[in-house]
Amino acid sequence: MLPKNGLLNRRTFLAGSAGFLSTAVWASSQKDEPWRFTSGRRMSPYGAPSKYVGLERLQIGGHPLAPEAGASSTPLERLNGIITPNSLHFERHHSGVPDIDPSQHRLRIFGNVQRPVSFGYEDLQRYPLVSKVLFIECSGNSYANTLPTALDKSAGELNGLLSCAEWTGIPLRQLLEEAGYDPKSDWVVAEGADAAGMNRSVPLSLALEDAMIALYQNGEPLRAEQGFPMRLLVPGCEGNLSIKWLRSLEVRKNPAHTREETSKYTDLLKDGSANQFSLRMGVKSIITAPSGKMQLPDHGVYEITGLAWSGHGAVKTVEVSADGGRSWRAAEIQSEPGLYRPTRFRLPWRWEGQPAVLQSRAVDSSGNRQPTRSGALANAAPGFTYHYNGIQSWGVDQQGRVSNVYR
Amino acid sequence: MSTGKYVVVLVGLLLVPWVMAQELKPKLGQPLEKLPQLAIGPSGQGLPLGSGSVEEGAIIYRNQCLACHGPTGRMPGNALAGGIGSLDGASPNKTVGSFWPFATTLFDYIYRAMPYGREKTLRDEEIYAVTAYVLFLNDIVSEKTTLSASSLPEITMPNREGFQSVYQIEAVDRALKIQ
């Protein structure tokens, strides 16, 4: 019998789909598929998506006085799997995308080191490289859901300051060792070569643990928007820490308290104090389909699917609810779990016109549970902007229209 | 063979992988002749020579900042001043004056990022001056103030005690959970 919430077991869903209907049609509908009868176009030097796909970044917006300072979001609801294509990786720039000639760019390591050194782009290519599939999430992601009224927006418009790529680069530890870093120092200040000269203090422990100087993104050299020729990548931490267009690393005893770690990217609480250096992104999941602004075409079986990730480790479980959190069912985790690697989850669902509220909640390998919206905002001051990881709710009305709702 | 020799052989064997690993490192770093500018933190280490006054800052502000930050630094959406005492209220207004814990951050940020669109065109004295002026707009320094490498780090910002670093706390939590 069908459970009232409509959530199904994935195995039955897959097994039940085999049926045969074989009506042979003998070359009668030829003209319907013209591409079967003439050669297609030739090879091309750099591929492009099919003209029928038309994927684009969402919410492209800048500061009214400074249009290059702004952001754009990944269209999460139109992608599947876990990897974000390079052209659709979210952007956040504070003074536009610099056009850096790699032959004129150097990475400098100085401060509390025995040997201040600098490396050229070609030099770095000769170091042993490592590859990791990692998410990057802007700490301002999902900010809209902290506002008092739920905005009618799509999954990507609301939560698309999240992307995932296979990053290839040099473990930062190697370069710090070559420079002879002072182990009694606790911080490294990273600085970008963009006009904003973005700078952040990174705990030395993170720099030595698993940070890398990334040179490749999904197999190709970094895109300019992602820091070409090189960026810092601090896995699991707020995106702003992973300084793009990286030009210098200063090893020092104390943090610099830069503007981006005081004025911005800190969490103002109700009592008027603020949390600083809340660097790791909390455990979070988002249903990407069915999701905001979609229309279910008819009654029947749908696959609920989405992404889950955590800056505190690997995703362990994801549960899905179709009744606003009254009952939950474990979703199937479809990608190999890994540290700071997003996972794709899936669960079949039967919709027969019943109003529903779809939600997902994740637990990570450190035991953190994704909070409800009100849980995530419990201590937050009004106008709290960063590190929001509350459960996303999608309402489905009787006509099958899906929209962002608060629960 | 004496124990001594064993030890020598053993140490030798242990050294082989280490020596090999050393040889496998490309070591392509070039000695840095010109050190980059230090990030200016609360200690003020790395601040340049020179000084600048509120009075000089007022002129720079009018010509190079006012259009985007408003005549008194209170342009909505891009404010630099105001909001002191508002942080625990119904509509917190985070500005340099109400929120920033250190005055040195202002120097560091203006040096690298402002004026927007013409970044890194201000001379050191001009950065001191306009820093002083932004602090004046927030009633943190008087109109007679001149700032330099020694006086800037001495300024106590109204929200100096407003932050708690949660990174260390988180790191400990995490270590406990993973155990």
Please describe what this structure looks like:
The complex is a heterodimer of chains A (407) and B (179). Chain A has two domains: 169 residues, Alpha-Beta Complex (Sulfite Oxidase, Chain A, domain 2); 122 residues, Immunoglobulin-like, CATH 2.60.40.650. In chain A, 9% of the residues lie in helices and 32% in strands. Chain A has six helices and 24 strands. In chain A, the strands form six sheets. Chain A has a five-stranded mixed sheet. In chain A, strands 6, 7, 10, 11 and 12 form a five-stranded antiparallel sheet that branches. In chain A, strand 23 and strand 24 form a beta hairpin. Chain A is globular and about 70 Å long. The two termini of chain A are 28 Å apart. The model of chain A has no long low-confidence stretch (mean pLDDT 94). Chain B is mostly helical and 179 residues long. A two-stranded antiparallel ribbon of chain B has the order 2-3. In chain B, helix 2 crosses helix 6 and helix 5 crosses helix 6. The longest helix of chain B has 22 residues. Chain B starts with a helix and ends with a helix. The model of chain B has no long low-confidence stretch (mean pLDDT 89). Classes of the chains: A mainly beta (407), B mainly alpha (179). Chains A and B meet through strand 4, strand 5, helix 4, strand 9 and strand 13 of A and strand 1, helix 5, strand 4 and helix 7 of B.
